[in-house]
Amino acid sequence: MTTAAFDRAYFDRFYEERASRVHGKREIARLARGVTGMIAWLGAEVRSVLDVGAGPGLLRDWFRRHRPGVRYTSTDVSAYACERYGHALRDIASWRPTEQFDLVVCQGVLPYLADDACAAAIDHLGSAARGFLYLEAITARDLREVCDLDLTDVAVHPRDGAWYRDRLGASFRPVGCGLYYARNGGLRFYELEAPPEEPTR
Question: Which of the two ends of the chain, N or C, has the fewest CB atoms closer than 10 A to its terminal CB?
Fold first, then answer.
């Protein structure tokens, strides 16, 4: 990953300019309500969040407004984003967090990483999550069938979904809609909330 590419022009195009941005405050608010609502439904509480690749900080801003008691840590690999939006400068491919969080968010980061770096990043996400991971990572199929290519940065590594699932499986069990739960967590799920091989509660 070339961090120089994540400069002002990148953030203006994909996050600031209404005509070309991938999402705005309204969409992120929907995501935040959905993720926190589902976690509450599954029986957990979000008291701490690690946001990996926080970009313009829209999710952090939502938590500050609606969940001010949550301890929120936002990071980004872009020096420009960190200066502009106020994040800690961290590269999840080389940085292993020393503390754990109830919710780890990794949105739009992993496809930019080469295979070895991406595998390391997934391992580091696993060590950081004592509860849930919300993951968004576009795959080769997404690029072919789902993504609006006018609004999507296609300068990524187009991997198969199975590549991600194989590596995520070491630390996480999928719950659905981008949510994963730490395998060493205490929650148990109903049979149809998780894949058949998962334990039921």
Answer: C
